[in-house]
Amino acid sequence: MRTDTPQPIKLSDYKAPDFLIPATELAFDLAPETTRVKARLTIKRQGAADAPLILMGERLKLISVAIDGQPVDYTTTDETLTIASVPDQFVLETEVEIDPLNNKTLEGLYMSSGRYCTQCEAEGFRKITWYLDRPDSLSKYRVRIEAPKAGFPHLLSNGNLLEKGDLPDGKHYALWEDPFFKPCYLFALVAGELDVLEDSTVTMSGRTVDLKIYVDTGMRDRAAYAMDALKRSMKWDEEVYGREYDLDLFMIVAVRDFNFGAMENKGLNVFNASLLLADPTTATDADYERIESVIAHEYFHNWSGNRVTCRDWFQLCLKEGLTVFRDQGFSADMRGHAVARIKDVRALRARQFPEDSGPLAHSVRPSSYVKIDNFYTATIYEKGAEIVGMLKTLAGPAVYRQALDHYFEHNDGTAATLEDFLASFHAVTADNPQLRADLSAMIDWYTQAGTPQVRISQHYDAAAKTLTLTCLQVTAPTPGQPEKKPLPIPIRLAVLDEDGAPQAPFNTPDNVSWLFILRDAQAEMVIRNIEMPPVLSALRHFSAPVTLHLDEPQSHAFARFKGDSDPFNRWEAAQGLAKAIMLDEIPDEALIDAFAQGLEATLRDDRLDDAFKALILGLPTEADLAQSQSPIDPAFLHHNRKRFKAALSLRLHDTLRDLYNALPVANTFSPDAASAGNRALRNALLDLLLAGFDLSQNPGELTLLAEAHFKAATNMTDMIGGLIALTHVQGAPYQNALDAFYARFRHEPLVIDKWFSLQAAAPHPDTLARVQALSHHPDFDAKTPNRWRALVQGFANNQSVFHAPDGGGYAFLVEQILAVDAFNPMTAARLVEPLSRYRFYAQPYSENMRQALQMITAAPKLSKNVLELATKALA
Ligand code: ARG
Ligand code: ZN
């Protein structure tokens, strides 16, 4: 047993801080290895009269401590500074020295490409100075930054610039003031050489706000799309949520070295460059889409996160779940509701469902953690967003908006809890007791982990014209929660006929569907006046994050695939059928024929948009299939999926080819949704065509087609589409394209990241060897998270290669995790998850995965981050 097993922090132990810090003044004297930070904190006691002052700090070299100008006695540990007796009100002054240059945790103050930047959420501020580093400690900040003029012309922090000026010895300074109370995790500082793209906007009340996006020198043009997305986000939040921006300046900085996507620091967002910079030749449509949504996400945090923040980190979903829900609403309005919903659900199922059924399952509001960084999970973000979505579904759009207005108004300037959030729904529903009760009951979705399984069985009585539905829900136990209660599950239903057209006009707003709330473990309902044999369309628009089992013949799924007016359920029907086919031991040729016909009809349907068709063509991934197999056999899934795609390809070859040729190729690039959908469809058609390569009568023709697509590409989306198509061909055509790609983009780090991840994702027998070689490539750098993730995460997601029967894939991952854990635990810990579900796999995978986890926990020096996850996975 390890002796360094860290103690968890528990929600039930929450205690308000004994001291308030109404004012924080910081002075930075920047130097790469010896930055000096002076803090002048105005502190007031609010707790017990004898409570000591205990501040948090990490890796700080303490120079001095004084209270009201006088030296004091204090004690320190690795993580705390304690002053036993302090007055009720005083000024604390400290000075520390820190080393940004060698800070490879990328948390606190660090250097990236010769530039200073910060990342404080969740607990990075304590690497900058001694402080009450907790989100319920709100303060007003005044920040002075001093640095050499050469190399550091821009000195940025939160809020408004009060002053700047020259100093002796070639130095200069800037003084910033943020008029809003904020927790320290929203503090930011950036200093360095940067290009800036400037613009401005006028808010709903007529104020002008300056917008500035800072990027690497020479990259200004690539910030244009982010700027456009920012302006659209600001407008949308005014129109849809009534939220206006509150400072006169909004800045964003893009940095290459960043542990995750982006950060919502007040007035000074910091972005991973990969989520900000875009132009047609270097960014794919998926990149544009992601940039738009993350720009919106971080901007929306200004209200859901900054103006109203979280009391403690257990409430993380209060800001993240709500903000994801808001950014999903924005993306849906920008790009189409049906397609956006399908993509969101696809992501939820790929990332959150496995988490929720495995050893790392936790509730959306966890009750304990060791390292909060490990809880920036799909559960807290994406399932958290689904819960807000269900609240809106239950309340309806108008009441939802009233509740949100109430929430922002009544909690502005405070650190809130989920109870405060739900209290706002309570406050605006006094006239509707049933709705009020349903909304209050939603708290259980926040506290109970696990994905509910819903089963609906049906009986049609043709003589009585009634359809009787029986609904059951059950949630499997998760770690620490053996017993589960029934949750309130909103299920949107419709009854279709055998062609998928709606039956029986119901007296509901859309005349087609109605909302049923499954409150108990079981419920029955009778639907009358059903004239024709019914086909049920349940959980329309994915109205709740559950797994649905419908007891029905396969013909019903075909009916929905053919005609369901809910595009989500239409797509879902196709997914379900494709899954069933691929999970069959022996291919069912008749079923494949029927599916191919359905696919052809979909592709030829002029009423459907290209983006939707591309999603239908996507087919369930190996990881999707794994969720329906027990025990999981990755080799079987890979083989069957490949076989199915080849079968479809051969059957539909002429259709695919005709449709591919018929699609127009635009002369000029536009990132809008329709153009992106067009490219997505063209690339998906090409991929399915090439999936027939091994069985093709004419492989030479297919090779030429893929090569021509790659060579003719005038944008990154089509280039990647060509490369993926050539992945089916392998050999020289594939390698030549990769080499050409590298030669062309070798000076573009964001594109070279793609070059690494594409190779890691190829389902080829030599991929592990290739990935190992790439980990020694001169362009590989484990200290840059983007590059490391491109290779290592790309590889771990490559199901059939990562799960090599001899365990070689796992060994490579363990080696990488341990290497990175030595300097960047937060990023290393993210990759423990692919090993965590070992109990679900067949042998020899399962045992090899377990041993790999044990190699991790047996390592002599391990961060708390990695230790927490590996230990939980093995428990
Ligand atoms: N608040 C940021 C966002 O969602 C993410 C911060 C991630 N922090 C972390 N320690 N993982 O926009
Ligand atoms: Zn966020």
TrEMBL record:
Domain of life assignment: Bacteria
Reactions accelerated catalytically: Release of an N-terminal amino acid, Xaa-|-Yaa- from a peptide, amide or arylamide. Xaa is preferably Ala, but may be most amino acids including Pro (slow action). When a terminal hydrophobic residue is followed by a prolyl residue, the two may be released as an intact Xaa-Pro dipeptide
Cofactor: Zn(2+)
Residues annotated as domain Peptidase M1 membrane alanine aminopeptidase: 225-430
GO molecular function: alanyl aminopeptidase activity; metallopeptidase activity; zinc ion binding
Limits of the Aminopeptidase N-like N-terminal domain: 32-186
Entry annotated with the keyword Transport: no
Domain Peptidase M1 alanyl aminopeptidase Ig-like fold: 450-549
Keywords, comma-separated and alphabetical: Aminopeptidase, Hydrolase, Metal-binding, Metalloprotease, Protease, Zinc
Keyword Cell cycle: no
InterPro entries documented for this protein: Aminopeptidase_N-like_N, Aminopeptidase_N-like_N_sf, PepN_Ig-like_sf, Peptidase_M1, Peptidase_M1_dom, Peptidase_M1_pepN, Peptidase_M1_pepN_C, Peptidase_M1_pepN_C_sf
Gene Ontology BP terms: proteolysis
Biological role: Aminopeptidase N is involved in the degradation of intracellular peptides generated by protein breakdown during normal growth as well as in response to nutrient starvation.
The family this protein is said to belong to: Belongs to the peptidase M1 family.
Protein name: Aminopeptidase N
Organism (species): Asticcacaulis taihuensis
Lineage of origin: Bacteria, Pseudomonadati, Pseudomonadota, Alphaproteobacteria, Caulobacterales
